[in-house]
Amino acid sequence: MSEEPPKDLRDFTRKHASEARSSLAAEMQETRKEYFSHQQQTSESLDRLYKEAEAKQRESLGVIEEIEAIEEELLNTRTSKYSEFIHYFKLKSLQDRLKTKEHDRGQTEEDYSTLQSSISELENLRQENSSLDQAREKLGDFYKDQNETWNLYQEERKATDITEIRKKYGVTFIHAIRPDVTPGMDNSLLNTWASWKQKLDVLLTLEPTISTSTVKEGADNMWGRMGVILSGGRVVDASPSDLGTVAKGVKTRMTHSERFATITDKIESSINRNRDNHPGYNELVVEDPQVAGFYISPDKYSGLPDLVSDEEIHDSLKDSGMKIFHLRNGKVHATHYDKDKKVFIPDEENLDPEALEEGYVTSREVKKLALEELMADAPFKISSPEVRYVDSSSQGKEFYLNLQIPQFLPNAAPKESEFEFTEFNQGYQIPKGSKIQLLTEFASVGQVHKYFLFEGAAYIQTVDTHKGKSKTEPIGNKATEASSHIFIGLTSYDFEKQIIDTETYLSSMEQKINSILERSDEDNEFREEIGRKLLEGRIQDVHNLAFHLYGFAEEAEKFNDLESAKRARSIAEKVMGHSEYKETIIRRVDDKGRLKITTADIPGYQE
Q1: Is 278:286 a contact under the CB 8 Å cutoff?
Q2: Does the first or last residue of the chain, that is N or C, have fewer Cβ atoms within 10 Å of its Cβ?
Q3: CB 227: neighbour CB atoms within 10 A?
């Protein structure tokens, strides 16, 4: 049996030789499957042969007993006082019977011997495991072949270790955490409204692959003047300037750096960059980052305000036990907090670089609590189909209201209510505390929408549930213009008619759903040809439309438009039941409009 390879080598092959490993695993699995199938068949055959041999043995013993009885009878007959002539026929019969039984005995013993031979052969086959031995040898050869690559990897791993790089080049690794900016598009997994504390909690709990910069004594540009200093981690890519990396998951960032350069050359080029050619900050992608502490840099900066107050940092981190450093002119200083002045005061002497090797450890309990808080506020960009469905529901509500704008004033049955306002885009203002007539309100992902009347005019106020900011504007600007296109759950749908009223909306939605369902039924007969992804896309499409209809129905019901509500629900029920719709809404959105998620929604996260 081949010796078990080291765990690190096994982990290495999972990541760096996954295709060859998977191919070998599939081959070994098939070999084992065939082996154990053969073993099962052999065992079944042996069970049958053992039973037959046992029966033959019993039969043989029975024949022997019969032969002994015949021989005894022959002896008694021959020695009888009566003449042999009188017993001639009896003796002849006994001799014939004896001859037959002797033949039966020989045949039975031959059959028994044959069965024993077959049993012996099958027992040998059952003990035969050369196929497994060969599979193990292949596995051993695989790891033997990988061993040289593993040794090179170990050397590379040492060369890319942050601690080794810090010692070699005299630099400090920092990861900026800005309160004012979250990289847009796909550069970050976080929404733009994520706070700096949430960004820090994400780093400490999920330990994602991150973008970092290095600084050393002297003028060195940074992306942000607050963030963390790293104590450990491994550099997987580097550039003397901004790489523009894109987050593809918690543990993965896609880069566009030099493809053919070695990682060690990239690191050296990144750190010893020509400042004239690359005047900004460098970027090094680090996986498995470990944090030494939080840094604040008072260095002058001409960009956007990228620092919060020392008091806010102190109050946010005082119970965490995390060290706070000052980073001035590329040099790291320990600090202490002055409670009266509410500022961090740096020590005069530079911090010994070796002190940064001691990482900050987040306890399991603190991690769990921080992760629960993150899930409650959901700062992540989530592309789950259910998020689209929730958006579709709120869009359906808004669509009904906008179709009914001309009827709002005469038909509304509002309640008097009071809440605060901000200025309109046009500069108009409603005084705080004014009495308004609330028509309806509902939550969507990240927002709460309130439709109301004030002094004879209709308005909508949209409140951002994460930033707390609100915007109010005349409702006429939100009216739906007649169009044959509706934007539903991030998808634009084309209809044969222009949607001008409730009737054309409902008939068009029913026609669209029927069309998709009919095509899906046809596709089911040709699933292998059409492709499963196409079918899944159509399933998501009809769910999108169903959620829009259910949201439409809910608002129609509020305004006592029961006929429209009933018809919208009946169309939606062709796709899914109302209980399934409500279960999804309750599970995904709280009453503040905040999206409720789980770690399963976070791309690339594994618990």
Answers
A1: no
A2: C
A3: 27
